[in-house]
Amino acid sequence: MVKRSGRASSTPGAGGWKLLRAVLAEQRFGLIAGMAVGLAWSAGKVTVPKLTSLAVDRAILGNGSLTFWACLIAVMAFIAGIFTAWRRWFAFRESRLTETKLREQLFAHVLRLHVGYHDHTQTGQLMSRASSDLLQIQGFVVMIPITASNLAMVMAIVVILFVQQPMLALIALAPLPFLNVLATRFSRRIHPAVLAVQQEQAQLATVVEESVSGVRVIKGFGAHEVTAKRLRKEADDIRAVSLDAARVRSSFLPALDLLPNLGLLAVLAIGGHRVLNGSMTRGQMLEFMQYIGLLIFPLRNLGMTVAFGQRAAAALLRVNEVLSTNPAVADPKKPATLPDGDAVGAVRFDHVTFGYSPDSPVLRQFDLTIPAGASVAIVGGTGGGKSTVARLLIRFYDVQSGCIQLDGVDVRNLSLQDLRREVSVVFEDTFLFHDSVGANIAFARPDAPQADLEVAARLAGAHDFVLELPNGYDTVIGERGYSLSGGQRQRIALARAIVANPRVLVLDDATSAVDPSKEHEIREAMRTVMEGRTTIVIAHRPGTIALADTVVLLDDGGVAATGTHEQLLATNERYRVVLAALAADDDVEEAVS
C-alpha cells in the first residue's frame, strides 16, 4: 500500500509521480520482463538492415545465394514480429494492472474519506479522476516498455552508423539536438493545455451526473433547456481548451516529424555521391538509409511519450489530490471493543458541542443519556440539529468537544466498522441500489438466510407488497429504487436496518415519505422492532413520536425539556409550538407532492 500524506508537495505533480513510482515498483518484474522482450525486439529490428546490405552486396551484386539471405532476413523479421507481440502484451498487461491498482486504491480511499469531504466535493470530479484520469496514466505506462526498447534501438543504430560512416552519421543525426529542444518546449506548452482539458472534462462529468440523478427535478420543473444550456457551456469549454491543446500539437509535431527526415535527405545527397565514387557499396547505402528510416518512428514515438507523460502528470496530480487527503474521521490506532451482555445499547451524549462551521455550533453542551433498551424521540425545529445527533453517533462527523459513549465506550475509540455495525440508521433520504429487493435488504449481511430477510420485511411492513412484485424478493428495482413508492423504499430501508440486528436503531424521519393516512400500517411494526432495543426516533408526526418511551425537546442546541409525548403536550408551550410548525411543514410537503 502506498503511503500518503495530507501535506501538498512543494513541486507541482511531485506527489503524483511519487505515487506512480510506488505503484510501478510493485510491478518491476513485469516491467523488466517487458523491457527485456523489447531489447530482443530491438536486436531483431537492427539486424535486418545489416542482413539486407549483405544480401545486396554478396547475392544480388555478387555470387552468393539470394535464397539463403532472403530466408535469413525472413527468419529475423519473423523473430522481430514475435517479440513485437510479446512486447505489446507485456506493455498492456502492466499498464492495465497499474490502472486497476490505482482505481482500487482510489475507490477504497474515497470510501474511507469522511462525509464532510463528500459534502463539498462534486461527484463528477471524483468520477473523472476514477475514469478519464486513470486512462491517461494507463496510456503513459503502456509506453514504458515500448519506449525503453525504442531507446535501445536508437542507441544501437547511432553506434552502428558512427562505426561505419562517422562523417555521414554526424550529418544525418545533426537534427537530433534540435529535436530535443523542440520536445522540451513542446512538453512545457502542452502540460497546462492538457490539464485544462482534464479539468473541463471533470466539469462536464459533474453536469451529466447531476442531470441524470436529478432528472425528475428537471422534468418536474420543465428545465430541459436550462440543463441543456449548462451542458452546451461545458461542452463548448472542452472544445475551446481542446483546440488550444491541438494548436500546441500542430505547432510542434510537424517539426518533430520533419527533423528526422532531414537526416534522410542528407544521406541521399551525400551517400549517393559516395556510392558513385566507390567509397560506399550499394548495400551499405541501402543499410544506412534503412537505419535512418528506423530512427524516424522511435524518435517520433519519443515525442508522443513526452505528450503522454504530460497528460499522465496532469492526471497524477488530480488523482493524488484525492489520495493525499487524510480522512478527518478515521479508525483509532488501537480500537476498543464493546462489552457483551443482555443489556446493551446504552448511549450517552456528554457535553457535546458541534457545528458544521466551527463558529456556528448546531449543538451546544448537549447532554442526553439513553438507557439500554429504551426508546427516545428527539423533536425540534427545522435545522435544530436532530439529524446531527444521528450523524455524530455513527461518526459521520466527530464532536468538537465533549464525547459520545456507546455502552460506556467513547465511539471515537471504536473502529468505524464495529460502530456502524452496532448502530443502524434509517435515513429520511432513502437510497436503494440497482439490485434485487432481497439483496437490498441483506446489504449489511449478504450471507443472511432468506428466512431472516422475510422476518425483517414483515417487521418493516414490506413483506406483503414485496410478494406482489413480479419476482418477489428477486425483483430488481430501478436505480435508487425509484420504481417503488417513497413509502415502499423506506420500508425496505427499515428492513435493511433490522437485518443488521444492531444494538442501537436510529430512525431519522423514517416515516416522512409514508402517506399520513397509511402511516398506521407500519407504526405497529415499528413498535415491535423497537421493543427491547435502544432506539432513537427523529420524527415530527405525533403518532411516530408517541412510539418512544421518552421525548426530548431539542431547542437552541440543547435539551429544553424531557417527558412523554402527552406530558409535554400538556405542560410545555414550546413543544406545542414546534409540533405545530412541523405539522405545517408536513402539510406543505403533502400539497407539493
Give an overview in words.
The protein has a 6-stranded mixed sheet, sandwiched between helices. A 4-stranded antiparallel sheet has the order 2-1-4-5, covered by helices on one side. It has 2 domains: 14-323, ABC transporter transmembrane region fold; 347-592, Rossmann fold (3-Layer(aba) Sandwich), CATH 3.40.50.300. It is elongated and about 120 Å long. The chain is 63% helix and 9% strand. Helix 2 runs antiparallel to helix 11 (282-323) and helix 15 (450-459) crosses helix 17 (486-499). The chain is α/β, with parallel strands linked by helices and 593 residues long. It contains 21 helices and 10 strands.
How are the secondary structure elements laid out?
Blueprint: H1 14-25, H2 28-60, H3 66-112, H4 115-120, H5 123-141, H6 143-164, H7 166-172, H8 176-213, H9 215-220, H10 224-276, H11 282-323, E1 347-354, E2 363-370, E3 375-380, H12 386-393, E4 401-406, E5 409-410, H13 416-422, E6 423-426, H14 437-441, H15 450-459, H16 463-467, H17 486-499, E7 504-508, H18 520-530, E8 534-538, H19 542-545, E9 550-555, E10 558-563, H20 565-571, H21 573-592
Parallel strand pairs: 3-8, 3-9, 6-7, 7-8
Antiparallel strand pairs: 1-2, 1-4, 4-5, 9-10
